[in-house]
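The protein record quoted for completeness.
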Amino acid sequence: MNATKMGPSITLLIAAALLGGAQAGAQSFKATKPTSGAPPAAIPTFSTSDLSRTGIFYAGGKYVGAQGKEVMGGSAYVEVWVPKQIKHPYPIVYIHGAGQTATDWLQTPDGRPGWAYYFAKQGYVQYMVDSPARGRSPYVPDHDGNLNIRTAANLEATFTASAKKGDFPRAHLHSQFPGSGLKGDPIFDDFAKTQVQFLGGGGPASQDELSRDAFVALLDAIKSPVIILSHSQGGAAGWLTADARPNQVKGIVTVEPGGPPIKNVDTAKVAYSTAAGGGMSWGVTASPITYDPPIRAASELQVALEEKSDIPGDVVPCYVQKEPAHKLVNLEKIPVVYLSAEGGYHREFDHSLAKWLNQAGVKTQFVRMEEVGLRGNGHEMMLEKNSDEIAKFIDGWMVKNIPQKDKPSMAMPPAGIPTFSTENISRHGFFYAGGKYAGEAGKEIMDDAMYTEVWVPKQMRHPYPVVFFHGNGQTGAVWRQTPDGRPGWAYYLIEHGYSVYMVDYPARGRSPYVPGVDGKLGIRTALDLAQIWTGPVPSGGNFPRMHKYTQWPSDSPKKGTMGDPVFDYFAKGQMQFVNNQAELAIPAGVALLDKIGSPVILLTHSQGGGIGFNVADERPNLIAGMVAIEPGGPQIGTVDTAKVEYTRVNPNSWGLTPMPMKYDPPFASPSDIKVHLEPSERPGDEVGCYMQDEPVHKLVGYQGMRILSMSAEGTYHRVFDVCIPKWLNQAGAKDDFVRLEDAGIHGNMHEMFLDRNSNDVIKFIDGWLDKNVK
């Protein structure tokens, strides 16, 4: 079988892409009837009417590793919200607790708007971080240290169902977590999906130190003064950040920060632990902080343990400094409010940290929440039933205790922090698709859940939402923003009336990775990124068309390589990844489509292409159309892109991916797929393609499915990109394969959605969708 018999020529395919093309081939594919394009009621979204701009960026970060093998680590993903009416001069910077991310501030597990929405309504600019090595902030395997994750039983006992499962004296007072707080309750299970892996030590820097460095860089980027709002583990990072930039912190709100001073407490026994090590050895942190008179080591603090506590209740006596006390000189002018919940395990020692702060000269108002009418809370109070009442109390305290001498306009993010208008967004939210518990009884951990961000346009013009599947080493953040600070494809599609869903694959980004259960972690080096994606010519890339790549969005002399500011920023968002990603992502992708419940347009990139093909194979009636941007490949054979030749046949390929697919007549295994190699249409640039022998087995769910496959002018993928579309068309799909330069879009590489002409590419895709996906 030759290429001509396979389908229309490339000229006709481009005509089909632009004009709609002829309806040729089998037409058994039929999507479910479209709906309005808006998310169903089961997917929580919230009005953006109080917002004027949003954006994301990365703070801090530096290269680690040997020369030639450097990896960017230590950066912090930051989301910024700007309200329609800025009423306060000092933005809020949120710092979350251990095992958590900025999702804590966005939404409650029972689907109510989080504190970020409350404070947007009050007129605060807000910055929400994912701490380094957590969430959408990269973790560097074999460098950053060990990883831990909480079990469901631990979450129940300490956070969600303390009255039933806790072993500390005040547990019975905890009543505010929504639902039963137990595994199997949908609210608890949704909460468990937000709980991610966290550093457990063993790296060259602790979590507190990594966070301090990133958050100091964040304050330097913000430039104006801020209010820090910290929780749990984030408390220590907040003290350290304020210590490093005292003139930029106007106030601190801390919600049950990490403690107590000097030594850990056994909360079941209400007694100090006898175990060696641990504790806040520097009083408020386990890392060095500035005292006056100065000290060089924590051991220089002279401390004594009270004979008994001077307050009633189930609390430990306090470690205090012997007088004259060393002062936390950089924190002395910063007002602090410290919230302690009525039914939380922190209550046993919270007063000790507050006492230490006051003795060290830090004006700290310690609030037992029940004494101000906020009853029944536990440690995760920002997620609990009375969360808005707590936010209201915090707002009142800030207005009363933080002098606001500057103009509200001061809080507007500076030009160096990119933000974009929300004028076309009516609602947004997030949820987790899929997920199941893994591990032995009593030690189960939530796994395989997929974080999904959803935006809804103000003017809905399309019945089918776009679902983005990202490439390897990346997250849904790539659709929001380019590395040179332009709005990403999500903004374009929202403006043109599409709802959009952006995922982080399971074990990636804000989706939990379970150590010891999920696959081994890897991460790309800076050199890898440059050679294959951003700067192949100066970095020593090796594929035929690399000289045609001209669209990397930088004019730096080091364009596309280390030292180029745009490249360095891009590297900050490149994530660790598992080696069995498809096995985790396909069930989650199917669950996502089931949750949406009506047909979608699946827009995939690279690794996401194979995942998308398998998801579509499972739910063809929920696919209105697909866009496959340089999908992972090639099928059947493995290609040496430098030599433009096959090196071997992949014995595990089902034609498109290594995962099983449904054919008619069916295949029992990949070994039953009989193929032959057809010659290349463009020798030297593209390999020939493996095709099925006659009679051809058809992809059952793909008959007549409309697909746009795209390949950039300057990419290493061009060597094999032509083959997957040919396989799809032979198997009954309607795949329009477009070499971008033939459509007048020149100079792109594999990451075309980040390139200088990224809007030209998405405009072309939008045009194809308008013509071909009805």
Summary: The chain has 19 helices and 32 strands. The chain has a mean pLDDT of 94. Residues 207-222 form the longest helix (16 residues). The CA atoms of residues 203 and 414 lie 34 Å apart.
